[in-house]
Amino acid sequence: xxxxxxxxxxxxxxxxxxxxxxxxxxxxxxxxxxxxxxRQHLIDALTRCPRRQITARRFPHLTxxxxxxxxxxxxxxxxxxxxxxxxxxxxxxxxxTYEVVADLLRRPELAGAPVRHVHYRGExxxxxxxxxxxxxxxxxxxxxxxxxxxxxxxxxxxLLRRTLGYIAARHRADGQPPAVVQQSARFETSxxxxxxxxxxxxSGAARLQTLWTLRxxxxxxxxxxxxxxxxTGVTVLDAARRGLAQTVGHGLLVRIDVHQxxxxxxxxxxxxxxxxxxxxxxxRLPVHAAPVMLVAPAPERVGDLIATHRRWxxxxxDYPACARAARHAGRGTPVEQAIALGVAGYRAATWLLAxxxxxxxxxxxxRSATTPPTRTFAAAALWLGGVAPVRxxxxxxxxxPGLAAQARDAAEVFAAYLVQSIGPVAAIVDAATSAGLPLSxxxxxxxxxxKEQK
Length: 454
Description:
- The protein has helices at residues 8-19, 34-47, 64-72, 84-92, 97-104, 126-135, 157-174, 196-229, 235-242, 256-261, 273-282, 302-317, 319-329, 334-352, 354-366, 372-395, 403-419, 422-433; strands at 27-32, 115-120, 145-148, 180-188, 252-255, 287-297.
- The protein contains 18 helices and 6 strands.
- It starts with 7 loop residues before the first helix and ends in a 21-residue tail after the last helix.
- Helix 11 (273-282) runs parallel beside helix 13 (319-329), helix 13 (319-329) runs antiparallel to helix 14 and helix 16 (372-395) crosses helix 17 (403-419).
- This is Glycosyltransferase 2-like domain-containing protein.
């Protein structure tokens, strides 16, 4: 957890309640000293910034109260800059996440609960924090699992029991429990944005991400696991059949011995989830898709949506580092590493070209000079990309939406395609112009905690 003071209480209460229904399970809350260093960096940045430029857009780490206090402070000098002491006073009034966690775990209702708190003092990001927490586990059996969740994840008891049942079934079928199990997610928004256009666009983006999960992520895991279980013996063919496992860093269950075998989550990349999948691929370790889906909150505002895509795309830019790490560890042959990199490059290219391809098809449909074959091809591409999948999703709902609602949903997906490539372009610019990210891309302007599950 990083900059999660407002959300940690609900998360701890949720997971602590689950342990009472799942004997043998424990909860580890991981906080990091990185937050202290980021707060100092934020103080330095604010004292170098004219007060009129202190905005929520520029400093998403600030809470609304902190933002108001800083912009209304009367201690600014004649040049409009705030004094360092004033900035420190405002930001230090909010306790750090690890202080909030420590206070929560002293409450009577959590006395005796199998919840422990690990505070990571290194420089690393989420992967390093998780690896550190795993290394601090007092007892663990070889076939125990680490289940990684974000602070806003809300796996319910039925979902976890179905996952455990799936693990037991795989154990009986394969003779050992699966190495890695992924709980995929369906994304939803709460519609908290003030402007209708932002609500519709973010709703379309959440639906588009869900479509990617259903059409790409889950089938890819199934093909990957099948290719490992039934190899042909031809290296090139088997590597091509496997493709590339693209794990996600929440709802990820990793067996303890597998975590140790691959050296934990990758700490040499910006993110940990996709690079971890690369290491599993080169180690030929299967990833099984659990027959369940989490409900994950999606960004509610376009700025947060683009920032999320910007962060996610950094994983694709880190794949060369993944290949170097795999070579250094002796995992996979050069051919297998090259094929995995090729698949990553293909996926990055399709994401990067999503917006221009959608725009080109739309122009081809409405442009009078377009030839009939080209117009037909463009219309078919738009239909298959947005309309057909929306109709398929609608058919699976208990209360099937009408044609007007389906048309609205398809229009939202089309709009989401038109902004799909902005985040990746920004990520490429970041990688080309900056050496690192001193502040994590966090925001306190998220909606209420999501607790419903399907």
